[in-house]
Amino acid sequence: MSRILVVDDEKDVVDFLSDELQAAGYTTGAAANGVEAVLTVLDGGWEAVVMDIRMPKLDGVNALRIIRRAAPSLPVIMFTGQAGQGDILESTRLGAFACLLKPVTIDKLLAALAQVTHTPLVA
Questions:
Q1: Which residues pair with 5 in a beta bridge?
Q2: How many domains does the chain contain in total?
Q3: Which terminus in the chain has less CB density within 10 A, N or C?
Q4: pLDDT tens readout for residues 25-55
């Protein structure tokens, strides 16, 4: 089954998204900021990353920039509740598969993940 890394500095968001993804059949891991995300991605074995843009220590855009160098083909889905249009455009320019707005709907997230992991949607 697909391993998805969920990255957000809000533990409640990580827990919610992880629970929903696990219910849909994914295996999840978690990181609380961009630094943890980069280090976890470097360990390998992930099929996709779902990452917030606004985080302390290293924001999602800069984490994506580093992830692109280390794992250029790893699908990354960004999400945000506070980022400006510039951050969203930069994420897209850096190769983010999608940029979803918070509150993230599970249907949209699952649809995006189904495309990048080639996993059929579960009804």
A1: 29, 49
A2: 1
A3: C
A4: 999 999 999 999 999 999 999 999 999 999 9
| Helix extents (H) in 71-121 | 85-93, 106-117
Cis upstream peptide for 103 (omega within 30°):
yes
CATH of the domain at 41: 3.40.50.2300
- Which tens digits make up the pLDDT trace of 67-84? 999 999 999 999 998 767
Percent helix, percent strand, percent coil in the chain, to nearest 5: 45, 20, 35
Whole-angstrom distance, CA of residue 123 vs CA of residue 73: 28
End-to-end CA distance of the chain: 17
Does the residue 85 lie in any domain? yes
99-102, long-range: CB < 8 A, 24+ apart? 99/53, 102/13
